[in-house]
Write a structure and sequence with these properties.
- This protein is mainly alpha-helical.
- It has a domain of 148 residues: Alpha Horseshoe (Serine Threonine Protein Phosphatase 5, Tetratricopeptide repeat).
- It is 73% helix and 0% strand.
- It contains 10 helices and no strands.
- Helix 4 packs parallel to helix 6 and helix 8 packs antiparallel against helix 9.
- The longest helix has 24 residues.
- It is globular, with a radius of gyration of 18 Å.
- The N terminus is likely disordered.
């Protein structure tokens, strides 16, 4: 990815309008977003995925440094770190999950509405996936509050309804899970994120089969 803060144009960048800066953030965040989707849904082999995630995590860290104080780069750095935790061995899993929680919590503190509730939702996923005390920091009640918050911000969203359905199924509420998963499938397709859109819908279908 091209570096934007070359010395020769530093003054121009400092004078850029907020809209131009925001567009740059969006483009760079989408790069991480698309990279994550490619690794999760298209790359085969656990060792290949691990190496790709490590490289993407480094890229995400550079983007966070490029846009200090912006919530969405932090959010996606946290999501990539969370994915690393998901695929890590037993000895590294909790440490990476804790790091992901701290990064996403920072994004949430900057802007609780980041990514239309994506910060709240991503934080919630960690709280219901990670074991509770004394092993980890898991907290089902906090997860439910954050998932509800995400749904308020994106009531018809694919991700918001998928993760609420996943949470409810985890809690034994098959009927509630089925309702949210069916709603997830009714979300409009996203032509700008085709790999994520198709991959997430496959996950929704697989989860929906478990509610029957």
């Amino acid at each position: 990815m091209k570096l934007r803060m070359l010395a020769a144009v530093a003054a121009v960048m400092l004078a850029a309008t907020p809209a131009v800066v925001l567009a740059g953030v969006g483009e760079d965040v989408k790069t991480i977003n698309d990279g994550w989707a490619h690794i999760v849904y298209e790359v085969r082999g656990s060792s290949t995925q691990t190496r790709a995630l490590d490289a993407l995590a480094n890229q995400a860290a550079q983007i966070v440094a490029r846009y200090p104080g912006k919530a969405e780069p932090l959010l996606w750095q946290g999501i990539v770190t969370s994915e690393q935790a998901n695929r890590a061995n037993f000895f590294h899993k909790l440490g990476l999950a804790t790091r992901a929680r701290d990064i996403i919590a920072h994004a949430y503190a900057i802007d609780p509405h980041a990514a239309r509730g994506g910060a709240a939702m991503s934080l919630a996923v960690l709280y219901y996936k990670v074991p509770g005390s004394p092993i980890g920091f898991g907290d089902k009640a906090r997860a439910r509050r954050l998932l509800n918050e995400a749904l308020v911000q994106d009531p018809n969203g694919l991700d918001a309804n998928y993760f609420y359905g996943d949470f409810l199924l985890d809690q034994g509420d098959k009927a509630g899970a089925r309702s949210h998963l069916q709603k997830a499938l009714q979300a409009p397709h996203d032509p700008l994120r085709p790999v994520w859109d198709a991959g997430r819908r496959r996950e929704v279908q697989a989860l929906l089969a478990r509610t029957r």
